[in-house]
Amino acid sequence: MSAPRFNAHGVWAIYRFEVSRALRTIWQSLATPVITTALYFVVFGSAIGSRMGEVDGVSYGAFIVPGLIMLTLFTESIFNAAFGIYFPKFTGTIYEVLSAPVSSFEIVLAYVGAAATKSVVLGLVILATASLFVPIHIAHPLAMIAFLVLISATFCLFGFIIGICSNNFEQMQVVPMLVVTPLTFLGGAFYSISMLPPAWQTVAYFNPVVYLISGFRWTFFGQGDVPVVTSLVATLAFFFICLGVVAWIFRTGYRLKN
After folding, report:
1. What is the Cα Rg of the chain in Å?
2. Is there a contact between 226 and 210 (Cβ–Cβ < 8 Å)?
3. Cα–Cα dist 218/207, whole Å
4. How many CB atoms lie within 10 A of CB 132?
5. Residue 5 pLDDT level (bands cut at 50, 70, 90)
6. Closest by alpha carbon to 157, among 84, 242, 240, 234?
């Protein structure tokens, strides 16, 4: 018996539908990160940065750029992917998707791919906006793009899980607002972990977000709070954990078929 063929047409149909849904609110989607980025640079870059000077040899305005991108990337990736799969559940059209001639891998690829595409575009928009305020030099541009795509895909998978497990729109907001955002602020988004007292540095290293932000910051400045290999391993570990959970959900039908 021959192996089932990859249904590129089905993947493209779901992907195109999700992207077109995002394009209908393109101005709101792009205006929000641009305005938010500008406000962060007014408050952190100008008011606070003028008093802090440099962090690890980098001007404070430039230093916060990777953390600012990650802050938006985490929350937007989770919400986009969560809403993308929750809405078909809410309307009942999820059964049409599940009964279509597309595999679980193809469904995840389409939904997560569409959400990750929007997240990567938002990340690049924030980067372009930040470059209007401070001079930005990316030491490893290819690694930066790779980290951006990998982290986007990882958190989109995480959001996909949240969307499946959520029973209402309020539950989709709990993890991004009460867990991910605080961990991001405590994960060195706007400061270096080395600036903390020794005891708090030890605590900070138990925060998984530290490794993601540090790895992404390394692509800009060639340095981070932890070795880049450690950051890469931590990011890949989170990615495969999320991938395993998604595979289990489709294998068991948890929150999908009931």
Report:
1. 19
2. yes
3. 18
4. 11
5. confident
6. 242
